[in-house]
Amino acid sequence: xxxTWYGHSTFLLETESHAVLIDPFLDDNxxxxxxxxxxxxxYILLTHGHFDHVxxxxxxxxxxEATVIANFEIGQWLAxxxxxxxxxxxxxxxxxxxTKFGRVKMTLAHHSSSLPDGSYGGSPGGxxxxxxxxxxxxxxxxxxxxxxxxxxxxxxDVAVLPIxxxxxxxxxxxxxxxxxxxxxxxxPCHFNTWPPIEQDASSWAETVxxxxxxxxxxxxxxxxxxx
Length: 227
Ligand code: NI
Ligand code: MN
Prior knowledge:
Blueprint: E1 2-5, E2 11-14, E3 19-22, E4 43-45, H1 51-54, H2 57-64, E5 67-71, H3 72-80, E6 88-91, E7 96-98, E8 103-108, E9 125-131, E10 134-138, H4 148-151, E11 156-162, H5 171-181, E12 183-189, H6 201-211, E13 215-216, E14 224-226
Parallel strand pairs: 3-4, 4-5, 5-6, 10-11, 11-12, 12-13
Antiparallel strand pairs: 1-2, 1-14, 2-3, 7-8, 8-9, 9-10
Helix pairs in contact: 5-6
Nickel (II) ion (NI) binds at residues 48, 50, 111, 141, 167.
């Protein structure tokens, strides 16, 4: 399968049969090389309600008829935006659901989750995906927390973690997160979108190599890696 980064926290995971879009923020994302009208999606996964994670979700869901997976409150908000309720899977922290591309479990995240119109966005989350025999942990926006050790039980092949600091964990805490989940490979995100979250990803990657057992996979916006 292939993982493509569109900048910020937007990723496209492509299996042999499905396109899984995560936290679509494209049209107003200064780092994105693509627009919302141009991406494919069979599924859309949302970690929380902030605009830099859900901005283009409703439009893409309506155009592609993708199934959207989000927390219950974001699911209700999407229905109000015109997304078909039959295409929304609302879940909550700790729950899991079997989909056509794999198993999706919603994990804990420590952050906030108001929606762009100010309405309540439920609890922020992350996802532990089991896809084609690999376990992929997408932490979402979060600080470092000790329960990441529980998320790592059973192994994590790939962790997708924020390193931008200010709104989420920064480079140093993401190193601890890599160790706690025991990730074999780690992809950084939520950095370099705007000046307040600028980071030197190559020096971060060097520290990951020195201090953890993980292989860092630093992508450029639009760049992909085979998983
Ligand atoms: Ni956020
Ligand atoms: Mn964010």
